[in-house]
Amino acid sequence: MPTVTVAEVVRADGVPIYSVLSDMAAFPRFMKNVQSVSVVERGEGFTHSQWVVKLQGATFKWTERDDFFPDEGRITYRQIEGDLKTFEGYWQLEPVSEGTRVILQTTFEFGMPMLASLLNPVAKLALRDNAKAMIRAIGDQVAKSF
């Protein structure tokens, strides 16, 4: 399965970044590719959220389980229903001298082995570009809010 990992430094402490990251329902307000995020279930340390995201002109919809580990600066996610066969990964925050390194890793699988060699390279590029844009949008949001 293809995996995309993007790491960018945000010039802020991890606490406000984690606060923005963990409020996924707010993402559509400041991330252009995220059309909607709705939290459909909330429990102790987890949510189930429904997403609609537009990438390269295609709309993807899924429901994911998000597990929150604030003491570790980590959020994991895993599709439980949706357009792809597999969609999972994590956000990880690591303190660095310039602020906080924000890492977004995504592993995915379309579920169409015959087309994988054609689709995977394009999807990896789109996911990488989107991940960079998401991290920059989070940094901008932190700068405005905190």
Question: Can you put this structure into words, describing what you see?
Answer:
- The protein is an alpha+beta fold and 146 residues long.
- It has a domain at 3-24 and 68-145: Alpha-D-Glucose-1,6-Bisphosphate, Chain A, domain 4, CATH 3.30.530.
- 29% of the residues lie in helices and 49% in strands.
- The protein contains three helices and seven strands, in the order E-H-H-E-E-E-E-E-E-H.
- The protein has helices at 14-21, 27-30, 116-145; strands spanning 3-10, 34-43, 46-55, 58-69, 74-82, 86-96, 99-109.
- The chain has a seven-stranded antiparallel sheet with strand order 1-7-6-5-4-3-2.
- Strand 3 (46-55) and strand 4 (58-69) form a beta hairpin.
- The longest helix has 30 residues, at 116-145.
- It is globular.
- The relative contact order is 0.25.
Concise summary:
The chain is 29% helix and 49% strand. The chain has 146 residues and is α+β, with helices and mostly antiparallel strands.
Notable features of this structure?
alpha+beta; seven-stranded antiparallel sheet; 49% strand; 7 strands; Alpha-D-Glucose-1,6-Bisphosphate, Chain A, domain 4; 146 residues; 3 helices
